[in-house]
Amino acid sequence: MTRRSQGGIGRRGVLQAIFGLAAAGVTAVAARADESFREEVVALLRRRRPALAFTLPGDDPEGIHVKVGGNTLQVYLGNLERQLGKARGMDREGQILDFFDRIVAVRPADDEERARWQEARTKLRLQVVPIEYRRQTKELVSRDLAARVVIAYALDQGERYALVTTDDLKTWGVDADAIHEAALAGLEAASGKLAIEAERSAKGRGAYATILTSDGYDAARLLLPSVRQRLLQALGSDLAIAGIPNRDFLVAWTPDFSARAGFAAKVSEDSKSRSHPLTDELFVIEANGFRVATAAELVEQRRI
To answer: Based on the number of CB atoms within 10 Å of its own CB, is 52 exposed (0-12), middle (13-18) or buried (19 or more)?
Structure first.
């Protein structure tokens, strides 16, 4: 896809990091689990996951060896037991089954997949797309953001980019968390020299700032902690209202900005009339993150 028309982490050791397990022969440190817990797990797996191939190592009462494809994975149960806490009944069983289901779904990447991933990871960027994209393309890799938009991932190819799908995850041998981390790092790197300057209200209170590079990722920069922090610093405020009416525009202003009603109305108008429209929703940037504006905040911005 062209940038102007729109728009594919198995990190090394991902199995250990996510599930507290390691491929055979790899050492892992985990909390201890007693034998009664392993017996509970084994009984549940035999009853609810009879197709799962596993063995019980005689020299390791805390572990289960799970067969996934051509690999045997050593699952250490101490971490799982700790995560369950005081969960009981169906909730406890559901968490145990989900744990093993995720193990089966994730497998170590082979050398070819790792090479493809190393080539792709530096080209990944965060992207914001209309929620309709998720509905139209079930394979789209995405995360929730707001009512009308979701976070997606772009594989940047110069003048074009493609949105990452589940097929890409298989090609690269990675998971969605790794895609998110790489895309976040990629857009952060591409935004490092971005200059952000605020314009003060000439006849009233407050200030505003815009990001308009037209590189296809301006709205997505709302997702970057470094950019949000620089916006707050430029505005001289610990709180800001932001809008991403289209893919190539990000605007933020102080809550007391004299022209806030006009800016809020312009975000709504541009989300319907500009190229690559996104959303008329307003967001609140805070020191520790951002969120969708509340009804009370929309009233203050003259939107309700």
So the answer is: middle
In a domain, 21, yes or no: yes
Give the C-alpha separation, 264 to 244, whole Å.
11
Task: Name the burial class of residue 295, with classes exposed (0-12), middle (13-18) and buried (19+) by CB atoms within 10 angstroms of its CB.
Answer: exposed
Is 1 part of any domain? no
84 and 41 assigned to the same domain: yes
Q: In angstroms, rounded to a whole number, what is the distance separating the alpha carbons of residues 254 and 232?
A: 9
pLDDT tens digits for range 261-272: 999 999 999 999
Burial grade of 274 (CB within 10 A; 0-12, 13-18, 19 or more) = middle
Question: Structural domain tally of the chain?
Answer: 3
Q: Please check whether residues 37 and 101 belong to one and the same domain.
A: yes
pLDDT per position as a tens digit, 168-210: 998 888 889 899 999 999 999 999 889 999 999 777 899 999 9
- Asked if residue 148 belongs to a domain, the reply is yes
Count of CB atoms situated within 10 Å of the CB of 166: 14
Q: Rounded to two decimals, what is the model's pTM?
A: 0.66
